Amino acid sequence: MSTDTSTPTPPFLGAHALVVGASGITGSALVEKLTAGGWEVSGLSRNPVPGSSARHVRADLRSPDSLAEALGELRPTHVFFCAWSRQDTEAENIVVNRAMVADLLAALAPGRSVRHVALVTGLKHYLGPFEAYAQGEMPDTPFHEDAERLPVQNFYYAQEDALFEAAAQQGFTWSVHRSHTVIGHAVGNAMNMGSTLAAYAAICRAEGRPFTFPGSATQWNSLVDMTDAGQLADHMVWASTTEAAADLAFNVVNGDVFRWRWMWPRLAAALDVEPAGFAGEPQPLEQQMAGAEEVWARVVAEHGLVEPDLSRVASWWHTDSDLGRDIEVVADMSRSRLLGFTGYVRTEDSFLRLFDRYRADRLIP
Prior knowledge:
Layout (H helix, E strand, L loop, with lengths): L15 E5 L4 H12 L3 E6 L9 E4 L5 H8 L6 E4 L8 H19 L7 E7 L1 H4 L27 H16 L2 E7 L2 E2 L9 H15 L3 E2 L4 H5 L1 E2 L2 E2 H12 L7 E5 L5 E2 H11 L4 E2 L8 H4 L4 H11 L12 H8 L10 H5 L8 H14 L5
Parallel strand pairs: 1-2, 1-4, 2-3, 4-5, 5-6, 6-11, 7-10, 8-13
Antiparallel strand pairs: 9-12
């Protein structure tokens, strides 16, 4: 578990956090962290988040008019941007996701209240976008924040540029947080390896088949790291309230490294299935789980689960992209450590805590 157990108290009287994407894996963890610390918190999402203690701000990030109406009277001091919208092509990703950052910050500009904006991106900064993911020449591992941008279109770069432009115009400080495969609690998230593997295991158990590693030999044998949503939340609050961390980009991972050949049987034991390792070639989940909706329906009925829509629990494509890579992926956190961030999480614990929480919520058996 994390060694940084301090509560992120507000940095000054009147500090008000706006969490953009409050219903997602990162956003929901941030809301929990900030409200526990006594911050005033507003959570922006299309729909209210059940059980959230944050004030709900309903807005469509793709509509400047909706943002202007929703945010016109809001005066946040800190903005945590944890949202993105997946499009069919990277060119569309760039247009849509850059505009979401730019339009939100433009809607807040007249209030002149914002002091810091934290933006969540990820290691596709170093690996390239989905259309050219982990192809071509990559920076050497571990990835360092000062690596040059790849010579390809990437919506993360466009989001950063929108952030930098708004900061220069409005005078706030910023931080960028490059996470790696976030492990956390959410339903209906487009990039959720934790619930995806749990659903995969439940279907394997129902069909009496082994829990086969779906990825590449490289991923099975190489070192890798991941990011717990709580660790990411701690890191974002730290950077947003630490003067020395202003106007910097950071990698943020748990601090441990592992190999999937070590982790896989441990996850299988926690999910009560028989593990099977790399099978000589990748076994993508999108292929393995084609037509699995009927099996999931039986699992839901048998165990009284609350989410019958398998697509809201499992994102096969995203887990396939992570586990199918043919390069080692490890991020360096020296920049954060040297500035005083001490958070550390053991990734196995992240998975096990998440599985327990999903069971308690009756999302998995």
